[in-house]
Amino acid sequence: MMLNLPNSKLGEATAITIHSKDLEESLSFYQKLGFRELYRFDFPYPFIQITDGTLIIMLSKQETPFMALTFYTKDIDTVAAQLESNHITFIQKPREFDHIHHYSFNSPDGMFIQLVTYLDGFYKPEGPAMLKMSHDDYFNPEKYVNKVSGMFGELAIPVSHLETSIVFWESIGFKTMSKNAAPYAWAILTDGLATIGLHETDRFKQPTITFFASDMHDKIENISASGISDITIGSKGNGVLITPEQQRINLFNLSN
User: Fold this and answer.
1) 130-253 belongs to CATH 2.40.30.160
2) Where does the chain hold its CATH 3.10.180.10 domain(s)?
3) Dihedral, 66, 71, 75, 78 alpha carbons, nearest 10
4) Which CATH class is domain 13-117?
5) 251: closest CA among 212, 204, 215, 214?
6) Which of 26, 80, 115, 141 could disulfide-link 20, Cβ–Cβ 3.0 to 4.6 Å?
7) What is the reported pTM?
8) Residue 63 in 3-state DSSP?
């Protein structure tokens, strides 16, 4: 399926950064969801990078629960200057002696967004996530890169006012791919690297990684059998996982 996707203004690669008190416990959890370890380092802090073939998660050893949308950027200081000229206020900037530069800012609804220096050899997932797949393939689980959890669809972000949030995300290079009014106002946006869903609702309170599958009922049964017990099942067969880091993962069932 050919989509007119933008080229990211924020970087050359992206990941979801999650703080973890226990990296090995977190790694074991995500492996049961179809992820694998890419590499680990202890500098500037212990972290493990994992992927399911379409999505990268950076597990960082920190005590406080935290999630951020992170972009890895080659010309990071130039990109940061462009963002500042576009009225973005950074809550964190690099120090002069930092080898790896790190900038942070927030969306209007408190989503942390980070720019980090891109290093050569950074892994980029080859498999297509849901946005880049054919609609027919949505209902063919053999086409899913992640056979355990299904297709990564979006990082779902609760917002207080959809139109205000869309203006912000479009100002940093995202494009609105679809807008919907039911069951509440929501939209899907991408910058060509990251895919987010903006949801004007109080049905959930924190950014949530979201997978979709036409056979999600079977996938949830298999995930439960693997030893993951903290799953809440809704009336339509959708599941919500609570991760060891106190984050949420949606497992949503698709219907024709």
Assistant:
1) no
2) 13-117, 130-253
3) -70
4) alpha beta
5) 212
6) 26
7) 0.95
8) coil
